[in-house]
Amino acid sequence: MRIIIITISSVDGMGAPKQKWTSEEEAALKAGVLKHGTGKWRTILMDPEFSAVLRLRSNVDLKVWMFLCTLPCFLYKNPMPSCSLMMNGF
């Protein structure tokens, strides 16, 4: 008997490999949210001030990163240690 394991990502080819966020990307996202507001992910990505830094990110990447960074603040009153976005009053 032969068992073949196929992952979903190898079948449909959707999605890019996950990349760790750089400090430059975090800073660009923070500045973009301060400039355009939360939820304006496409606007932030199209803004020439941030587009070069965030060129490998999608609007969903921005939304998820902001959600993950702000959720612990609401739940635990303490930001995730790995998320520098929340530092300095953001």
Describe the structure.
This protein is 52% helix and 0% strand. The chain has 5 helices and no strands. The protein is globular and about 25 Å long. The N and C termini lie far apart (56 Å). Mean pLDDT is 76; it is low at 6-12 and 85-89.
Please give the count of helices: 5
**Cα end-to-end separation:** 56 Å
How many extended strands?
Answer: 0
Main β sheet profile = none
How many separate domains make up the residues?
1
Q: Give the overall average pLDDT.
A: 76
Cα Rg: 16 Å
Return residue spans where pLDDT drops below 50 for at least 5 consecutive residues. Answer: 6-12, 85-89
Strand proportion, as a percent range, falls in under 5%
Order of helices and strands: HHHHH
SS-based class: mainly alpha
Helicity, as a percent range: 40-55%
